[in-house]
Amino acid sequence: MPGTNAIVKEDGSTLSGLNITAGRYQPTQRYAIASVDNHPTKGTGATTASDVTVKVNNANVDSSYWSYDAGDRQIIPFKVASSDSSAGNQNADRTTVLRGNVQVPLNDPISADNITQIDDQSYPYTNVFVNGVELVNSSVEQQFDITTTTLTIYNVQNLPENGIANDANVYVVEQPTVTFDPS
User: Coil, helix or strand for 175?
Assistant: First the structure.
């Protein structure tokens, strides 16, 4: 159903045949915002809702119309043994994955709201860093994929260190967000 706002009303039994419930349907207006506390190298303290000012057309929006989620940051020491990497893609002493893709189990599940992709490539609410270098998906190269429980890093040979070693610092950052409450 195209559009930005719709009210669906029952007329006889048309909606039940379509498996749709009558009601008002609005798109969720959710925005990632900048916050230093979740950045792996610049984090200095927790941002709270009282630190956030929301404006629309240069007018402040009362906090009763929006909610703030502080996001989260996970620091995951990479482990070759749990990466699902074949021995042929590892160095001789099995301490570094030199090529191919790796799986990184997340310490804690992340919100399903934060793994929504745009154009099957970018994640507007999630950032991934390996040893302080951000991985960025593009239309030319997808560097990572993420589910609520697992991070997949593609083609580790393209990382700045030409692979990923045991105990490399993997950061998964769920961006702080502001969501306008439908009313």
Answer: coil
